[in-house]
Design goal:
- The structure is a homotrimer of 215-residue chains.
- Chain A contains seven helices and no strands.
- The first copy, chain A, is mainly α and 215 residues long.
- Chain A has one domain: Up-down Bundle (Methane Monooxygenase Hydroxylase, Chain G, domain 1), CATH 1.20.58.
- Chain A is globular.
- Chain A starts with a helix and ends with a helix.
- Chains in contact: A-B, A-C, B-C.
- Chains A and B meet through helix 3, helix 4 and helix 7 of A and helix 6 and helix 7 of B.
């Protein structure tokens, strides 16, 4: 099976690699804006950061759609068509998660986001860097999968750490917060941040399946 | 690639077109019932409309399952098997979204649904009409994709307008509503309405990918 | 089509059957722990049960990933590759749903879970048994699909009963509960329990599509 698959690596189809790299850069941009946004807490600043993140999210959508269009038109792709589809979709999903969190911060306008929220944003940013690194490895991992494999392990670890931070925060929130509306706001924002780390881990899972199939 | 795909348009497989049209009609019925339901606000009337919408939703499920069963048994389909699957699934998802909103209106029983909710319901109904129109175009779009393409653009625009209405409403809700339980009710209902417009836009995205592949 | 598909049943590929059985056993374990957990209501006990369920959930993930890895490497599988993928994914999703409910019980720490919650947990456990039974039928259903078919019908019925319990409970909750934070807790926990029965029904839907395709 390996040979028949490797034979599908036609040079002219390498256009998917730069598009996937470009897509991973939008995740990095969105995550940097998110981290930056948490240093501000007026409703105007929050709305402003949300708009910037939404622009990046739309750019990510456009790149993803371009990848899907190319997949529809291209007969031979470096991997199975579906693998590139799932990979692009999962990377774009991280940006969507960041956008969902930023949107809720802007329209719910909660009290200042505390340390746990900032830690989750930092984990998302680290996840974004790992996704970028993984896209750099994609062209060569069939010969040397160790580095891509390491990215997957780290994405998994990040998500576990995010889980712990989230669960501890929510436990404390429900035992201490008496303002119901404030609780609703921050609970849902933290949920969205945690989901963005899930999305980054999911990229790692798809990459791991590529290693199993092609390396 | 175009030729090999076009050659898959076997006349005997056109049974998928009437089924998809029939499915789009269930979306239209559900969206009309939803719009109608918002003119009433007793718990009995709401429950009554929810039951009617749930019946339509089940009908949609049955048609979708019939499409899936036929796909499992049919060797040659007008498009790739997976494309018809995704299309049917995405259309049915709009009805599911309408059903979710109607269900919450019935079981949460909030205060009267205001203008923003009615505007979202109107956008959903417009989206449903576009989905019906798109299904009429499906048999001929490979020769003349302009009209189907226009449906996709309009579905995308609808979703953007729904986003704006939703975000403005939620921003105001969180700064004005002091009744926490009422806030929970209306927030989630508006979320479900907005998600139904997302689902309609998603039909448009799948149609756009069909245009790229086959037209 | 039937013959060409049946010819794909190569004896050496039967490794998927024991893995799917093993996966269904994790659903059963998780659902038993969930039922058991509802007899206890201190935060320590809840956290303890959540940890146990999380361990089972991780075990389920590992088995699912092993199935996916094997699918990536195996050329001939008893069914279409995608069917096994969807089946394994959907079974694991039931455990994920149970885990989500248990997690919320642990970190929200609501008042004692009442009869409706216990009834939902019982339906989940019955659903898990049906999934186990279905996996026992999987090796032979192409010759005798009646028993597998019956599992699908029962999974569908369970979900309908769960729906009714859930909707009645939420209607009463919103008209009676005045403690907003308690309402948030129990509402979301009941939602997660109901979603786990949806997930079990979804296994039934996938099995039904296998019957249509292969029996």
């Amino acid at each position: 099976m390996k040979n028949s698959l490797l034979s599908r690596f036609a040079p002219k189809e390498t256009k998917f690699f730069p598009m996937l790299k470009q897509l991973s850069k939008t995740v990095a941009s969105a995550s940097e804006l998110l981290t930056e946004s948490l240093k501000h807490s007026t409703s105007e600043e929050r709305l402003d950061y949300y708009r910037k993140i939404k622009d990046v999210e739309r750019e990510g959508d456009q790149i993803t759609n371009r990848i899907f269009d190319e997949l529809g038109k291209t007969f031979i792709t470096p991997f199975d068509r579906e693998d590139i589809h799932d990979l692009a979709f999962s990377i774009d999903d991280v940006t969507d998660g960041i956008n969902s969190a930023a949107k809720r911060i802007a329209i719910y306008n909660p009290r200042e986001i505390g340390d746990s929220g900032k830690e989750l944003a930092s984990l998302i940013q680290q996840g974004a860097s790992l996704v970028c690194k993984a896209m750099d490895e994609l062209e060569t991992f069939t010969k040397n999968p160790a580095s891509l494999s390491e990215c997957c392990v780290k994405l998994h670890d990040l998500e576990n750490r995010a889980d712990d931070i989230y669960e501890l925060f929510i436990t404390q929130l429900f035992s201490n917060e008496k303002d119901c509306i404030e609780l609703i706001k921050i609970k849902e924002i933290m949920q969205e941040l945690e989901k963005a780390t899930d999305a980054a881990e999911h990229v790692g899972k798809i990459l791991k399946s590529l290693i199993v199939k092609y390396a």
